[in-house]
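Journal club prep — side note

Before the paper discussion, L.F. wants everyone to see what a predicted structure for a comparable chain looks like in token form. Sequence:
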Amino acid sequence: MSTDMWAVLVAVIIVHMIAAIIIGYQIINLLEEIAFPSDDPIMTSTLDGFADIDAPEPEEELEEELVETQTAFVTVNQLRRMKKDELIGLCDSMGLDADGTKNDLVTRISKNQ
């Protein structure tokens, strides 16, 4: 093969790799939009009181947070980050059935907000 043919072959391979990366990125964005729609109010809503939900808090602050949660709209992701005991307390305060798995409680609470 001549030098020109090698240059063309390398250029074609580089273009192919760039196209594969761009297509892969677009597929990831499409799958993310399907999984988490940008127009879904549950996925796009935010609450100021739940920014540091993973940080450990004393018992008194947890009770205050549960009172705030009763009156505020909570996203499904925020509910999933809560402990099962907190979800049971939230179900009790909302007058919902507190039996079942953590996923059952999250579903029940999200449907009744």
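L.F.'s comment for the group: The first helix runs from residue 3 to 35. Keep this in mind when we get to the figures.
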